[in-house]
Design the sequence.
């Protein structure tokens, strides 16, 4: 029993060190260090004032039609998220509807997570999104390329990504580093065509009837978050999102 407990404590210590090392590694890069120097002191005051404490988790919700990116935070001991900041897209690419194939210029729609922190991006700083996922591959079909390299980034240009100004990406990037450093392995990025109220669904499905089935599979995830202020349990089953 002592050996089991000791092994657990060592494993826990290694996990904590790995998390702390993430921030230490990131801040060695000049742009990240500058972002921290410029943004973190002020951001931290608002984080503390919001009751999120020193360790918090993060969810990003993005809405293509509204051109808004929301950052939601919660203290790691809390049960629900609250809205921390809203940022404007500074450019747009394509139209509403999911990304289907490489080169179509579309910004994806669906349930993703951050899988890359790029401190040396060609677009100042960037957060990679794990597009394509299983639902995207199923939509694109066999022997066709779904594309990739989807990021939330600076530099205010885009072909399928979510662009913010350099000043805004500094804030989102720093918040992401802090969340990951506090132990959040997967930071959700939920990309919606619009705020998926019943009224908007009716309006936009009338304009884009081909997207009706797909958007109806996204709406339960949106509604669950609106109701519970927490990420729903979403799985990818046979090319579709299933919200539990």
Sequence:
């Amino acid at each position: 029993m002592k050996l089991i407990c000791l092994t657990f404590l060592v494993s826990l210590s290694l996990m904590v060190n790995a998390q702390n090392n993430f921030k230490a590694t990131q801040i060695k890069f000049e742009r990240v260090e500058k972002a921290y120097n410029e943004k973190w002191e002020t951001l931290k005051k608002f984080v503390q004032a919001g009751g999120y404490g020193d360790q918090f988790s993060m969810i990003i919700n993005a809405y293509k039609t509204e051109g808004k990116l929301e950052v939601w935070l919660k203290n790691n001991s809390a049960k629900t998220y609250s809205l921390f900041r809203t940022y404007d897209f500074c450019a747009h690419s394509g139209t509403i509807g999911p990304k289907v194939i490489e080169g179509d210029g579309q910004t994806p729609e669906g349930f993703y997570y951050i899988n890359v922190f790029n401190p040396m991006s060609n677009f100042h700083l960037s957060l990679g999104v794990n597009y394509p996922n299983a639902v995207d591959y199923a939509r694109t079909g066999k022997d066709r390329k779904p594309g990739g390299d989807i990021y939330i980034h600076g530099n205010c240009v885009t072909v399928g990504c979510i662009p913010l100004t350099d000043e805004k990406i500094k804030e989102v990037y720093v918040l992401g580093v802090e969340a990951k450093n506090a132990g959040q392995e997967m930071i959700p990025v939920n990309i919606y065509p619009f705020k998926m109220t019943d009224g908007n669904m009716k309006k936009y499905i009338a304009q884009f009837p081909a997207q009706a089935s797909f958007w109806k599979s996204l709406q339960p995830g949106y509604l669950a978050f609106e109701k519970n202020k927490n990420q729903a349990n979403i799985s990818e089953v046979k090319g579709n999102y299933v919200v539990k």
Notes: The radius of gyration is 19 Å. The longest strand covers residues 110-121.
